[in-house]
Amino acid sequence: MMTLIREGGWPMWLVLIFGLVSLGTAARFAWKPARAQLGFIFGITTATLFTSVMAICADLAAVGHSAMANWDEWKDQIVRVLCQGFAESMSPGIMGFSIISMVALLVAAGAARLEPAPAR
Fold it and tell me: Residues 105-108: contacts with CB within 8 Å, 24+ apart?
């Protein structure tokens, strides 16, 4: 996990914060489900999703800026540099989407235990 955080840079901290809040609220929902929790879980998980996408974009932008700033030095191996930068830029997606998958699993477990909604 530390490798993902190191490779993803500062945006990974936002992914981690939102992701841990999502995971914690989903775990609470799985333990003691209540319909009132679902709105917050949906909202914070959506924030985790968009933060993961933002972090990928920020990392790709950093790779592009760095490649252009160092073009003369790196031009002979630019494909290798860009491939490594692209690989590191996927770290926020790996972590964020993994957390979102675990949140979905916990919400599914809680939903299975949830009382049926009253008929109208």
Answer: 106/23, 106/26, 106/27, 106/29, 106/30, 107/26, 107/29, 107/30, 107/38, 107/41
Domain extent, residue 12, equals 2-23+45-106
Direct distance between the N- and C-terminal alpha carbons of the chain, in angstroms, rounded to an integer: 47
Q: Is residue 18 part of a domain?
A: yes
Total number of domains constituting the chain: 1
Report angle CA 69, 5, 101 to the nearest 5 degrees. 120
User: Minimal CA–CA distance to 88: which of 118, 116, 63?
Assistant: 63
pLDDT in tens, 41-93: 999 999 999 999 999 999 999 999 999 998 989 889 999 999 999 999 999 99
Confidence of residue 116 (pLDDT cuts 50, 70, 90): confident
Task: Say which range, 5-14, 27-36, 110-119, has the weakest mean pLDDT.
Answer: 110-119
Distance CA 78, CA 72 (A): 10
Asked if residue 120 is part of any domain, the answer here is: no
